[in-house]
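Annotated sample (chain length 121).
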Amino acid sequence: QVQLVESGGGLVQPGGSLRVSCAASGFVFSNNYMTWVRQAPGKGLEWVSTITTSLRTTYYANSVKGRFTISRDNTKNTLYLQMKTLKPDDTALYYCTRVSYWGQQMAFDYWGQGTQVTVSS
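Output written by the structure step:
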């Protein structure tokens, strides 16, 4: 069965960096667009970033553009999100998701359990 398992979250000071990972299994990882979505305390879901398949084209929310980098290692079936210059507003539960539809809208069919990122001094 499809599994997405995030790791690497934690507590980091403002201005710091952190990399979260997502180990995928149960499907052909290299054939799927992948996305990071986050949810801050008391707020709704926010799309963060998407990476395509072979061309590895990347897309970012304006709130993280220039600070976050999404990448993938298809040999390890792993998705990454490198986060730099972190702000308290980046505090959220970060989910790895598999994209089921990508167009004018987007849809996700599988989600991991999430990894908590807390930015605080």
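Annotation: The chain has no helices and eleven strands.
Annotation: The mean pLDDT is 96.
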